[in-house]
Design goal:
mainly beta, Double Stranded RNA Binding Domain, 12 strands, 8% helix
Length: 211
């Protein structure tokens, strides 16, 4: 399924022809270059590898440099691949741009969520706080974790404090509102994962797509 990589620019709002305010995320999508075409004969499956953003030569190791030079392509910073569907065909060196995506279609967008560091139960899992009466000393603590005599241990899988964020998150069925071809920009309705400047993977929605 056709896929493109992009960089999150930020959020703004636009107005529809009816005067409706539409909150949108602006994404600099592509252009990406097809760097490898995988086939069942050589790789065991059919897929396309794409590269996004130019990279300086001294920041690419020798194996990856050889991979790009093999097909006479420029060095790329980010790589991704997607499986081919029936009827799809790509060639090495082919460019995929934001203009190749149809306005009004739904997209699945994958990114890395913002890291929150180590957090407690209330922020991480939405637990209720404890009593706030004078001297309780139990406002934001985790509370009891296990029974006493039996089983005398904490069960695995309990929700507790720990690292929060920096996870791979996919937002499904995001509508593509507008494409600005000359600036390689996609405007999609609503929010998408990650901070400004974060790398996003964009493809047509797998579920809920209008035929």
């Amino acid at each position: 399924m056709k896929t493109i990589l992009g960089k999150k620019i930020g959020m703004t709002q636009i107005f529809s022809e009816a005067g409706e305010v539409i909150p949108v995320t602006v994404i600099e999508a592509g252009p990406v270059v097809v760097t490898q075409v995988k086939t069942a004969a050589t790789d065991g499956y059919e897929a396309v590898q794409i590269g996004f953003e130019d990279q300086k030569a001294h920041r690419v190791n020798k194996p990856m440099t050889g991979h790009f030079n093999k097909n006479g392509l420029g060095l790329k910073k980010h790589l991704a691949e997607f499986r081919l569907e029936d009827g799809e065909a790509y060639e090495i060196g082919q460019t995929i741009t934001a203009a190749d995506f149809e306005i009004g279609k739904k997209l699945d967008i994958t990114g890395t969520s913002k890291g929150k560091g180590t957090q407690g139960n209330i922020k991480r899992h939405g637990h209720h706080r404890g009593p706030t009466s004078h001297g309780s000393k139990h406002k934001r603590l985790a509370g009891a974790l296990a029974a006493g005599t039996y089983p005398s241990r904490v069960f695995k899988g309990n929700k507790g404090p720990g690292r929060m964020g920096r996870d791979t998150v996919t937002v499904q069925n995001v509508v593509l509102v507008k494409v600005i071809d000359d600036r390689n920009l996609m405007l999609v309705r609503g929010a998408v994962p990650g901070p400004k400047g974060g790398i996003l993977r964009i493809q047509y929605a797998v579920k809920g797509q209008d035929k």
